[in-house]
Amino acid sequence: MRLALDAMGGDHAPSVTVAGAVDAAKEFGYEIILVGDEKLINAELAKYKTAKLKISVHHASEAIGMDEQPAQAVRQKKDSSLVVAASLVADKKADALISAGNSGAAMAASLMELKRIEGVSRPAIATYFPTLTGSCTLLDVGANVDCKPKNLFQFAIMGKIYMEKVFGIKNPRVGLMSIGEEDTKGNELSLATFDYLKKTDLNFVGNVEGRDIPKGNADVFVCDGFTGNIILKFGEGVAEMMLRLVKDEFKAHPVAWASLPFLWRPLNDIRKKVDYSEHGGAPLLGVNGVCIIAHGGSNAKAIKNALRAAHRYAEKNVNEEIATELAKYENLFEERKETANHE
Predict the structure, then answer these.
(1) What is d(CA 56, CA 2) in angstroms, rounded to the nearest whole number?
(2) What is the CA radius of gyration of the chain?
(3) Rounded Cα–Cα distance for residues 251 and 263 (Å)
(4) Domain spans, the chain
């Protein structure tokens, strides 16, 4: 399996992308293609012993910046590291694309090069969230600011398959983000989506609220990308705040500070659960290929784990299952249209 890494994507590229690739190649034995400025990448590679590692460089003369307009940048910069990496996957020269660069551009490049899975109206970014009972996934977290009921319905299907295949959760619980648990709560989008979801054989637990995420009251939380991105960024902020508060409190109390060696292991376990670098990146579900989007501020550990996430996703045949599951409900929305017309 070959993994194409956008070596120029991210706030600290190419130093951390190359470092992460080297770590992944050493630890997991992955075959990695570093895509980007050959001169800059080789200068970084020279810092490490890579003779026995399965790392190659594929030159791309351009890079897409974080502040560039995604669709325009992808159209105009055909030789950018991101577009070239996506084309390697489309041409079957690589099995997965990984990028910590402009997430909108990663989505645009994936749609342009990989296309959609048959039946998918829009792809969605599915992110990991730690919970009191383990973990869950939230989607969409930014790929689609405005959504229709069909989009959220398909997000639920894709999220269910993702949790089943990649995380091994049998019959995952699917919840629809809303402002109350009652069936009648929500806006037009959530109410219409609710009606569709209850007609499926999904393990649909109904409406869920923001507080249900950390409690782990569902395995898949579904919402539009605008709402999901706010939840994601809020969660990141809370995690950073809590870690900072714990650190400050230990420093403020000498006795507590002295006991730190005895508490280090449980505290470190907690830190790992809320540290995005431990989980690497989020898959773009719905594209006809594998695309993992990593945090723009990723360090080497995050890049290494994003590569691991891509490898795990690619070997589970997630996309084939998504296409099969969506086909079961292809007539659901047509039936709804016919019913509405008769009324």
Answers:
(1) 10
(2) 21
(3) 14
(4) 1-118+286-317, 121-278
Task: Give the strand pairing for 220-222 and 173-177.
Answer: parallel
Q: Rounded to an integer, what distance in angstroms lies between the CA atom of residue 179 and that of residue 159? A: 21
pTM of the model: 0.90
- 121-278, which class in CATH? alpha beta
Starting at the edge strand that comes first in sequence, how are the strands of the sheet with 291-294 ordered? 55-59, 31-36, 2-6, 96-99, 291-294, 281-285, 124-131, 134-139, 220-222, 173-177, 203-208
Q: pLDDT tens digits, residue range 315-333?
A: 998 999 999 999 998 887 7
Which fold does the domain 1-118+286-317 belong to in CATH? Answer: Isopropylmalate Dehydrogenase (3.40.718)
Q: What does the chain come to in residues?
A: 343
> Rounded CA gap, 294 and 302, in Å?
7
For residues 151 and 175, what is the distance between their CA atoms, to the nearest angstrom?
15
Alpha-carbon span 12 to 127, nearest angstrom: 22
CB contact at 8 A, 74 and 113: no
Indicate if 121-278 has the same CATH topology as 1-118+286-317: yes
Alpha carbon distance 312, 256 (integer Å): 40
Sign (positive or negative) of CA dihedral 117, 119, 124, 130: negative
β-pairing verdict for 281-285 and 124-131: antiparallel
Say which residue, 25 or 272, is predicted with more confidence. 25
Per-residue pLDDT reduced to its tens digit, 68-124: 999 999 999 999 999 999 999 999 999 999 999 999 999 999 999 999 999 999 999
